[in-house]
Amino acid sequence: MHSKNNINKAATILVAALFFLSFTTVYVLSVRDWEKIEKSTKAIFNLVDFTFSEIKNISNLGSTRLYKINNMGYLAFDQAPSKFHKFEYYIIFSDKGNILKIEVLNYNENYGSEICNQRWLKQFQKINTSSFLTYNNSIDGISGATLSVQSIIANSWQVTQKLHAYLQLK
Amino acid sequence: MKRLVVFIMLIRLFNGANAQNSAEKIIVGNSELHIGGYAQIDFNLPSRDGTINKNGTLDVHRLVTFFGYNFNEKVSFVSEVEFEHVTEVYVEQAFLDYKIKNNLSVNAGLMLIPMGIQNLYHEPATFNGVERTNVDKYIVPSTWREIGIDVRGRSIEHSANYQVMIVNGFNGYNKGGVFSGNKGLRSGRQKGANSYITSPDFACRVTYYGHPGLNLGFSAYVGESETMEYNGLDLADENAVVSADSTMIGIQMIGVDARYTEGALQLKGQYILANLSNTDQYNAKTSKDVGSKLTGYYAEAGYNVLEGRSDTEELISFVRYENYNTHAGVTEGTIINDTYNRTDITIGLGFKVAKGAMFKADYQIKSNAGSDDNSGQFNFGAAISF
Questions:
Q1: ipTM of the complex
Q2: What domains can be seen in chain B, in order of their start residue?
């Protein structure tokens, strides 16, 4: 009698857990994603040994995940919408919060994938501004990829602001 | 504890269920549901030898509603329903998209054939000129769509996208020949409406975007047209088989296209070549004059006058040279008709007042190699996509 009760309870909790999981889908970075991020980190900071320690004690992070890279810089990962789906990308920042690299990890739509172009993404590295308008104007548009271009500009700006807010608190 | 869980689940259910029908989903802003559309409203005014001697026409050329639904991160549905000239209704796209893994998906349903630029990017605010290019009407029969299955992939490392498709072909013969010398393959589109199949066709496209501002595309299509003569054909009857074979043509089409943007300058070009086989037998059987070779190309240069002066508006002046020839080659028994070798020169303006909203005006000079006639046409239009 007693054990049956426990099974019931366990089953209820399991069902409830599944129920919640089906509502919240958090993107899990794959091994391949991490390999790319590590490769870039090595190249940028000229590091052999490094760790990514996640920064969680800030509010309003939303879907953004922030990591500290040793004492050298920061990594941010996020998803942003294209026309229909979401794409995954990351940014590596200097310790001052300047963009050193931005790369799209996965692009899940046939239209607009031009934003994955590394040479186009290099434009983000040179910008040093506190105005979104200037930031927006510093990036060349791509015809046929307008939605994704706007999306990565807006999303990377928000991510940068989140990191800057954290750096000011420190 | 149990009661609490049940209570939370009930709340969850309520939250999930508080938008049950489609209309309510739209109202509450369902993130899974995507709504969009595009429209093109035209005023065409033909002229001949510099004078206007015909009535103008005003037309809601096309109005398309887009509905998409993301079932989850992997599965989504895309649909476009089109009203053409107000009274004709078509389904332009309707397919299920299943993401197998990152950067790779399988799709099945009614899909666009990946050939050239405009068949895929046909939203009116994405091209210059009121009307679509005629290369993408007479050579690539836009909007060309059939039912099939495809694989679409993206390689970020190589800055390339690819698409490989098995798809239904044209209806080439149904109680009579459907293709024509003038319009090429255009009348054979089945559009997924009670379509039939004799044998499947294949299409593929690769695009490369490795150089910023440049987008290169290569498309190919191979297959045979479908024919109703094979339906219930007695394969033992040699004469019947020979007769049925003559109602089918082989199609090999390739296309290369390029788009380049640098500051205010916008360049665009496309070349399409289609080789059709068995047209001698087809023409003999159907008394048609289908060409054995179809070619079409255009080159366009546009300049955004407002570049650097406005963040939201663009004023694009453009000029386009276009040639499309449905009789670039014929087989024995068919005489080349030079009036099918047509050239359009289009000069115009596009005033983009917002992303996806554009006013257009242009003038087209239309000529052909078979006559001295030079006709012209003024076009004015409103183009919308969202």
A1: 0.73
A2: 101-385 (2.40.160.10)
Residue B78 at interface with chain A, using a CB cutoff of 8 Å: yes
The DSSP 8-state label assigned to residue B229 in this structure reads: G
CA B129 vs CA A156, B123, B151: distances in Å: 35, 12, 32
Q: What tokens does A112 get?
A: 């607009």
Contact A39/B at CB under 8 A? no
Helix spans in A46-145 (H): 118-121, 132-137
* pLDDT tens track for B266-305: 999 999 999 999 999 999 999 999 999 999 999 999 999 9
Nearest by CB: B209 against A84, A113, A133 = A113
Question: Quick check: B161 and A113 CB within 8 A?
Answer: yes
User: Residue B153 is which amino acid?
Assistant: G
Domain boundaries, chain A: 29-169
With contacts defined as CB-CB under 8 Å, which chain A residues touch B9?
A: 15-16, 19
- Residue B12: which of A23, A86, A119 has the nearest Cβ? A23
Phi and psi (nearest 5°) for A130?
-110, 10
What pLDDT band is residue B313 in, cutting at 50, 70 and 90? very high
What does the DSSP 8-state code read for residue A28? P
- B335 by DSSP, 3-state: which? coil
Give me the residues paired with residue A101 across strands. Answer: A92
Rounded to a whole number of angstroms, the distance from the CA of B103 to the nearest CA of chain A is: 5
Q: In this structure, how many other beta carbons lie within 10 angstroms of the beta carbon of residue A114?
A: 24
**N-term to C-term CA, chain B:** 49
CA B83, distance to chain mean position in Å, is 15
pLDDT, one tens digit per residue, over A106-160 is 998 888 999 999 999 999 998 888 889 889 888 888 877 888 999 999 999 999 9
Q: Do A144 and B126 touch (CB under 8 A)?
A: yes
